[in-house]
Amino acid sequence: MSNPELVYTIDRFQEGISSKVPGYYVRSSATINVEDPPEVQQHNDNVDKVKEIAEYLIKSDRPELVFYIHGYANSEKDAINRYEKAYKYANSVDSGLTLDNRNCVFIGYRWPAETPLFQTGNYLESLPSLIVGIFITSLIFGLTAITLTLWANAASNFLLTSLLIILLASGLGLWIRDIAKATDSLRIIPNGLVLVFFTWLFGAIFSLFVKNPHPWLIFFIVICGLLIGMILALIILRVTAYPRDRFRASNYGVLDLVRFFQDLQKEILEIDRDINKNWEDVRIKVSFTAHSLGCEVATQTIRILSDVFDPEALNPKASSKIGDVFSLGRLVLVAPDIPVESILTSRANFLKSSLKRCEEAYIFSNEADLVLRLASPAANYFSFPAKTRDRGYKLGNVTVERNKKKFLPNDYGIVNCQNDDFNNPAPPSEYLEIRASSNERKSLHCLNNNDPLDEKAIADSFTYFDCTDYTDCTDTETSKTGVLSFSRKQSALNFYDYVQLCGAYFFKFPRYINVHGGYFEGKFCQLLINELAFLGYKGLLRRYSKSNQFDELSSLDPEYKELYLNFSEDCKSKYIQVLLAMPNKVPAQP
Q: 16, 210, 270, 360: least buried by Cβ within 10 Å?
């Protein structure tokens, strides 16, 4: 394989004695900041690792690639820990992969995300010089106006007032200019002297010449406060790292992952020249499990890999095949930070043509996800072209509708199958809604401009797991407790609930609740995600089967219904609501 531009690095996970599923850690080489120097990398290692993966896949009759992609604000340490858990599961007896004849390769993909509050660089340093100047001026004039309103007998103490104003203007101006590194554009001479002079003149006018200056001073305080508030809002948005993470996910994470697929396919075809394998019959199945903003990376990668110039792309029953050797398999989206438009039938659904190629698709969501309710909508308020807040919500905000004040265990489990008829579930779209409170909720049909979702609606191709009240043991808690919320099993979370969740998520009071990433901490949910990622829904049901002839079972067999019932009971015991995808709405035909 020719030496491509270094856009990623590859490392192999440490294997145990019984490891049969190889695992790799693919890391985008993009830096957190564009000014950061690139890391020194050994290019030949990439070439060897790609060749190693290609040779392993070519030898298999049922080759598979399973990708795990982390989400917003995940540190590299956290991402690796999550990938190692998944890799450990893949090589466990529970997965069955070690006994299966499939050659599965696990890949944990790292795109350049950063942790909020611990960014490299100064928040003020990257502000444009004009905004820094407005910030300094507003702060100084605002504090001067406050000083004059509080300073008794300012006219009789003019000299002392002047000295105070000059010291205040000089100190604040030098301090902010220094921490913002605006030395070149905001020089002390003449900018600093001019600012001090006009601040002193401002104080002199209101101290000596203006009768009853308080109304005017209050007016100046309000104007300066508004300007400072707007700039602080920008700084706070920068501190969250969300807009920066979204930019890196879309422009680095996606394209670097696509480059990995290009290199892998090229290597496979070069090795295959001597073997001449029939890739039309045996394709490498590619499955994605993504969390948060990682869902943006996964879906946009699928969108690019699903060649838009392929005539089959417009076919409602488009093939899952992509490229020369790959096909799309399972898609597991956990707290997906992608527009809710992705499951609607509107013109704005730019992912429809690509997502319909997946053979299986799953969504994990919960109502208490503060990241998708606060940070994501606030940041996208400036960029996403929606005129109502309802259409500005994310796919991870979509949950199962609730019409009762209090929920009992029987209200959980699989909820869209009447009389336990699991072969004919009702359309999931009829049960879905977005709710911000008991008074503010919209069904999926309302979000679709009150038009019924047609038979091609991609919303009915997903299986949904509403984990709002999910209760389980976690990696740190041995007793069962609410994993993603306080699990109060009510019709909707109210303002008081959100205040408590803010305390739990941001300040760990009265206990820490990971409302956005707790899916990977609860024992049952971890197992559920891993089984769907590596085995699919049929593999998940296999765990409940006592028969050695599971693969020969038909969906009409009584035992198959029993498997569904056992799975539903497990979800009931964990307070998870499940909507099964409609069997005749499978997106792709292999």
A: 16
